[in-house]
Specification:
The chain is mainly beta. Helix content is 10%, strand content 31%.
């Protein structure tokens, strides 16, 4: 069965509201690094120029915020997440990824949700560089989940054998966040609430 384009409980908007926790970080591109580590065959680091040198693509998609707004027909440009996964070669035991971002922000994803053709490390929106308020210089794009999973100011992927809640998930948000299932809130396992974090959703 085909899903409706607008998920239940959402309101369509032409605007792009700015929502995040804490402040907008000042990202120093000369010092910025993207790190991939954990349960992978080939851990690695990329500097800004190294990331920008990877093959680029554009994705046209809708985005859906847990605060109940949706915005249709966005065009993002950047590096395919699958390109980064292919370089890392996640081990068979890896099932989840903890996404890291500036200000120690984290969010968690099953690898099955991260390893999709439409997911990017995005630099642009509508052909223009992402503004800092919207996650520039680079944010994760995972458009099939609520937009807090598309972490702003992203800095790395940590591959894990077991799921671990990120910043908003520890605060009661759902561990997965499917908009069509209205997976807005849940109760993560308190035994796994080990890491702190701040930042944008």
């Amino acid at each position: 069965m085909d899903l409706p384009r607008l998920p239940p409980g959402q309101v369509l908007t032409a605007k792009w509201p700015v929502l995040h926790f804490a402040t907008v970080p000042a990202v120093d591109l000369a010092r910025w690094r993207f790190r991939v580590w954990g349960a992978v065959a080939h851990p690695y680091n990329l500097d800004w120029e190294g990331l920008r040198a990877l093959p680029r693509r554009e994705v046209r998609c809708d985005i859906h915020c847990v605060t109940r707004w949706s915005r249709f027909d966005n065009t993002f440009g950047g590096v395919a997440v699958q390109e980064l996964l292919a370089r890392a070669e996640p081990l068979e035991r890896a099932r989840f990824v903890l996404v890291h971002a500036e200000q120690e922000y984290t969010t968690n994803l099953p690898i099955a949700d991260l390893d999709r053709a439409e997911n990017l490390l995005a630099f642009t929106h509508g052909g223009e560089p992402l503004t800092p308020e919207h996650g520039g210089p680079v944010r994760l794009l995972v458009p099939h989940l609520y937009f807090w999973k598309s972490a702003k100011w992203v800095t790395g992927f940590e591959f894990l054998e077991e799921d671990e809640p990120g910043f908003w998930e520890r605060g009661g948000y759902h561990m997965r966040g499917d908009p069509w299932q209205e997976e807005r809130y849940g109760r993560p396992d308190p035994a796994r609430m080990r890491r702190g974090g701040r930042g944008g959703g």
